[in-house]
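Progress note, sequence design subtask.
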């Protein structure tokens, strides 16, 4: 590209006019309007190209990772000077976080999500997406930012579906009021309030007719509430025609999927709007990823999935429990977890929760040694936090043993009596009590050192003067559907021990949670993971969280950490394999004792093939810095050696045309030697060398992948640079330009070519019917299964190191090498049970799609 689009000063003034029009109209309409203003066609074309380029820059940002359907053209380029909602929220976040990196992360992630919505001025649209975060990781902040930016661009009605409990709905409404509405109250009308869920509100038209005002509804996923909402919306049909609506489904895996009442009612709400975007938010997307995509009345994220990165300072499953190494990982590189989990012996469990429902009415919990140790640690840790005087001013403890509300109330007299005895001992300066407390503090702080986590060490003698007040001020709160007292963090700093069940098991934030005792069982991944209220940020006390639980529960959470890591790798593979939510299903590892999600939500799931069966793995990233020269040359040498192996082996050579060479029946040794020498860029997580070689080794043991077909793919362009690895091969190099992010790309970032392989190349070793059109992806899969069921395909792409291009949004590769060697591998689907692995996986049952083929690209040659 001879001139940066962003630096094209000749069009700057007209471009600013265009951008102002895009605020209110679609890009196509904006282009028509500036034409009518007399702007020359050449200038219009350059303006549109620049806008498309900026949209692509946003859509293709590395973080957060995302995948979207149909390679759709996006429209949102980020906040603009006239915005009001986002700048106010941004300032609020700066005041709250006092960390520019954290604010920028929220800005980038929310911009990415908004870019994947439709322009509010389109005549009709219905978008369905999913944002995957971590438990207690700031998902509410993200969707608040998305709402602010969508409101600044013209979305009018915002409906937040906030779980199934009043406490979470109230908490969400208060946060949106404080963070989003308070700074610009004249721009918003709250149809619901912290005290009132949606009820009878009169004629909806009276609300929707108001211009320049956004409407906010925060509603529970409750059948009675949703029926009222549907009836209310039905009174304003004509106003809904031009009412761009954004529905945020918080805890989108709960009640939304496969429920007899809530699911149909939610779909009726969506169906009311000709212009609607739906975004599900969850940290446990297991149910959402197993929905049958062919059921239009359901909520499969067919348009996009965004995988939020793990925030800095967030303590999640890996941090607390560690996890098992994934197939391609070295165990030494896998997080082992901090030493924060304490054991509740199995023989204590019967004193902490009833064995069954029949026993619950007469059950009386006891102060077991584990419970006593946990409560004492809570007091010690809270006293230490007061010495530090940093971070969250609240301090909470969670006791979660049973769903039965009567059991919850049974803990109150036990804990009150223990608090009284402890206060008495502190007043008397009981030597035994003080020695026990000192020993516990010394042992615990030796296991997790404060300075290792950037916290200030506190000695026992420093915290002791604070301990009496901590114990005295500790409140006991039972939070369940029967209790009148609820957790309240809005009336000043709180020091509390909360006992509860379902109301404390999802979505609700326990502020300053430092200690937990948890022996509640669960049958499914999502249920269990959401109960982990101890996940989150621990600013000022990262060294102090402790969790008391049984060995079995600890093992389950360690398994969940492994499932989460594997799931996120699968989602990230969308980005690097050019798949989309309708062509590639995320795999979820099963467990012998736990369901992935509720049985009703798994009814459409199918067993999934593990590892690489049926997948195309290809080079996408290349290090084209001067420092990357030796890496590029090493890969080129590895390809030359492989070609020599193919020529010397007993494989047959076929030249389909003058610029493509095919070697059939190449022994696997040459391929595995190549993969041991060729190095994919580290960002290509799906192409890890150890994982690839390990998978091939597994397949070899059952008689597959012994033979490979290897091809060298060239260009038909007569002007192409030549690739001559030996005296018998002379082909043109292909051009693969990089995505041009201009100033938005860091100098040490690799060149991203997005896609290497074309569909026709994956049929090179197949016999196609005479006169048949180029087969689509699913047809190719069937042909390969019939003709080469156990044979792998390896494609070598000698890439022109310069790769000039005129394509919008692309830039020359400009690599410091004679040739850039790209590699693609296409693995056959495993036949029967020949791909034996220890774990079993499930995924969504994707239907065949006739839309854009993920492999269909044209070689980037100049016309």
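Output:
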């Amino acid at each position: 590209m001879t001139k940066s689009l962003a630096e094209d000063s000749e069009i700057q003034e007209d471009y600013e006019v265009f951008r102002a029009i895009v605020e209110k109209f679609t890009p196509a309409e904006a282009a028509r309007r500036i034409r009518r203003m007399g702007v020359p066609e050449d200038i219009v074309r350059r303006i549109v190209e620049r806008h498309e380029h900026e949209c692509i820059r946003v859509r293709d940002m590395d973080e957060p990772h995302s995948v979207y359907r149909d390679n759709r053209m996006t429209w949102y380029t980020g906040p603009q000077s006239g915005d009001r909602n986002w700048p106010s929220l941004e300032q609020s976040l700066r005041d709250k976080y006092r960390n520019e990196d954290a604010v920028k992360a929220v800005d980038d992630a929310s911009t990415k999500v908004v870019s994947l919505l439709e322009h509010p001025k389109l005549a009709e649209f219905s978008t369905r997406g999913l944002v995957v975060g971590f438990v207690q990781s700031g998902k509410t902040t993200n969707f608040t930012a998305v709402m602010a930016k969508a409101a600044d661009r013209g979305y009018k009605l915002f409906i937040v579906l906030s779980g199934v409990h009043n406490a979470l709905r109230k908490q969400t409404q208060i946060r949106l009021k404080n963070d989003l509405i308070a700074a610009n109250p004249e721009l918003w009308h709250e149809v619901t309030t912290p005290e009132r869920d949606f009820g009878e509100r009169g004629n909806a038209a009276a609300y929707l007719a108001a211009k320049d005002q956004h409407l906010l509804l925060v509603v529970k996923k409750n059948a009675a509430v949703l029926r009222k909402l549907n009836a209310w919306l039905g009174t304003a049909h004509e106003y809904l025609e031009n009412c761009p609506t954004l529905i945020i489904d918080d805890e989108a895996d709960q009640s939304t999927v496969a429920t007899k009442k809530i699911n149909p009612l939610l779909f009726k709400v969506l169906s009311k709007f000709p212009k609607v975007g739906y975004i599900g938010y969850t940290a446990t997307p297991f149910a959402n990823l197993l929905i049958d995509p062919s059921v239009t009345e359901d909520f499969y994220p067919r348009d996009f999935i965004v995988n939020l990165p793990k925030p800095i300072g967030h303590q999640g499953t890996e941090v607390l429990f560690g996890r098992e190494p994934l197939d391609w990982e070295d165990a030494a590189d896998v997080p082992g977890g901090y030493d924060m989990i304490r054991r509740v012996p199995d023989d204590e469990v019967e004193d902490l929760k009833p064995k069954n429902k029949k026993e619950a009415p007469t059950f009386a919990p006891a102060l077991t040694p584990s419970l006593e140790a946990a409560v004492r640690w809570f007091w010690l840790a809270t006293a230490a936090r007061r010495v530090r005087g940093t971070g969250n001013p609240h301090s909470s403890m969670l006791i979660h043993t049973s769903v039965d509300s009567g059991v919850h109330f049974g803990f109150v007299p036990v804990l009150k009596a223990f608090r009284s005895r402890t206060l008495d001992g502190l007043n008397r300066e009981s030597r035994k009590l003080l020695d026990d407390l000192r020993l516990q503090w010394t042992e615990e702080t030796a296991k997790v050192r404060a300075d290792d986590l950037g916290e200030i060490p506190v000695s026992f003698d420093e915290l002791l003067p604070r301990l009496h007040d901590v114990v005295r001020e500790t409140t006991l709160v039972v939070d369940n559907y029967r209790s009148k007292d609820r957790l309240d963090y809005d009336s000043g700093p709180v020091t509390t021990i909360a006992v509860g069940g379902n109301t404390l098991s999802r979505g609700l934030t326990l502020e300053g949670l430092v200690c937990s005792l948890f022996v509640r069982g669960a049958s499914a991944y999502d249920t269990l993971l959401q109960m982990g209220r101890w996940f989150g940020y621990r600013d000022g006390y990262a060294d102090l969280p402790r969790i008391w639980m049984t060995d079995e529960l600890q093992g389950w959470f360690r398994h969940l950490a492994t499932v989460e890591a594997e799931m996120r790798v699968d989602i990230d593979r969308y980005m690097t394999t050019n798949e989309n939510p309708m062509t590639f299903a995320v795999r979820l590892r099963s467990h012998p004792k736990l369901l992935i999600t509720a049985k009703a939500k798994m009814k459409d799931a199918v067993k999934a093939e593990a590892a690489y069966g049926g997948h195309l793995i290809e080079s996408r990233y290349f290090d084209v810095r001067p420092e990357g020269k030796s890496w590029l040359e090493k890969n080129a040498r590895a390809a030359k050696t492989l070609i020599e192996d193919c020529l010397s082996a007993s494989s047959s050579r076929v030249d389909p045309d003058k610029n493509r060479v095919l070697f059939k029946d190449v022994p696997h040794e040459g391929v595995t030697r190549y993969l041991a020498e060729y190095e994919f860029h580290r960002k290509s997580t799906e192409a890890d060398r150890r994982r690839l070689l390990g998978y091939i080794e597994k397949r070899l043991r059952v008689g597959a992948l012994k033979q490979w077909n290897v091809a060298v793919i060239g260009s038909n362009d007569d002007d192409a640079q030549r690739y001559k690895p030996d005296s018998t091969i002379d082909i043109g190099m292909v051009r693969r330009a990089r995505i041009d992010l201009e100033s938005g790309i860091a100098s040490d970032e690799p060149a991203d070519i997005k896609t290497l392989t074309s569909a026709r190349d994956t049929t090179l070793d197949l016999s196609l019917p005479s006169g048949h059109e180029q087969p689509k992806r699913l047809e190719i899969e069937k042909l390969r299964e019939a003709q080469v069921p156990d044979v792998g395909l390896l494609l070598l792409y000698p890439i022109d190191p310069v790769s000039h291009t005129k394509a919008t949004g692309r830039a020359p590769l400009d690599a410091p090498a004679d040739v850039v060697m790209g590699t693609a591998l296409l693995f056959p689907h495993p036949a029967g049970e020949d791909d034996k692995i220890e774990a079993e996986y499930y995924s969504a049952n994707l239907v065949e799609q006739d839309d854009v083929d993920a492999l269909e690209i044209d070689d980037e040659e100049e016309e």
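Residues 1-6, 833-838, 847-863 have pLDDT under 50 and may be disordered. Work on this subtask will continue into the next period as scheduled.
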